[in-house]
Write a structure and sequence with these properties.
- The structure is a single chain.
- This protein has helices at about 5-15, 45-55, 65-80, 105-115, 140-160; strands spanning about 35-40, 60-65, 90-95, 120.
- By secondary structure, it is an alpha/beta fold.
- It has one domain: 3-Layer(aba) Sandwich (Rossmann fold), CATH 3.40.50.
- The chain has a 4-stranded parallel β-sheet, with helices on both faces.
- Bound molecules: NADP nicotinamide-adenine-dinucleotide phosphate (NAP).
- NADP nicotinamide-adenine-dinucleotide phosphate binds near residues 46, 66, 125 and 126.
- The site of NADP nicotinamide-adenine-dinucleotide phosphate has 19 residues, from helix 2.
């Protein structure tokens, strides 16, 4: 027999309440001095997050596997009008979650440029045909959506903990 709270939770899955925290709570210039990394930041949710954070004055690393796409995303956000008073500093970081060999170098390159990491968004993810594997032979979804983000997070954990 479902409980009342269980039914309420189920109801909210179908009819989620309005969010209590939105972009209006992240004011212009409010993140100056903070450093963020967003994986999969050249499109979709990741790019929307970059756009949302752009006026806050943070340093934002757009991490992804296509330097060309990352640069295009940075150019798109940087050229958006109207220009904010405290634009964030956008940087690209090469990271291919389908190839574990790229993870440690990405974290090392980041650590060479920054002394802090405030937030890491492990946003990148993909859908692959059945039977796909990563460069190391791991099932593609498990490799790119789980193993690689875990390794990347572990590499960056000391900087996350230091903040
Ligand atoms: N949108 C939804 O309804 C939904 C629902 C459930 C879960 N999600 C998850 O939410 C996240 C964002 O979704 P989205 O809709 O914004 O997806 P999206 O537009 O397809 O963006 C995915 C991003 O992840 C990057 N990416 C994929 N595989 C990668 C890899 N091996 N290494 C590095 N980067 C990689 C893509 O880079 P490239 O452009 O280079 O491919 C792209 O920037 C994903 O993890 C997705 O699985 C989304």
């Amino acid at each position: 027999m479902p409980t009342l709270s269980g039914l309420w939770a189920l109801w909210q899955q179908f009819f989620p309440p309005a969010p209590a925290f939105t972009e209006r709570d992240v004011g212009s210039g409010s993140q100056v001095g903070k450093v963020f990394v967003i994986t999969g930041a050249n499109s979709g949710i990741g790019l929307s997050l970059v756009k949302l954070l752009y006026p806050t004055g943070a340093t934002i690393y757009l991490a992804g596997r296509s330097p060309i796409k990352l640069q295009a995303a940075i150019a798109e956000v940087d050229s958006a009008l109207p220009s904010p008073t405290t634009p964030s500093n956008l940087k690209s970081l090469f990271l291919d979650l389908s190839n574990l060999e790229t993870i440690e170098p990405a974290a090392a390159l980041f650590a060479a440029q920054e002394t802090r990491l405030d937030i890491l968004w492990n946003n990148a993810g993909n859908g692959c045909p059945p039977g796909s594997v990563t460069k190391q032979g791991i099932e593609a979804h498990v490799g790119a959506n789980c193993v690689a983000p875990l390794l990347f997070t572990q590499e960056l954990l000391p900087m996350l903990r230091a903040v």
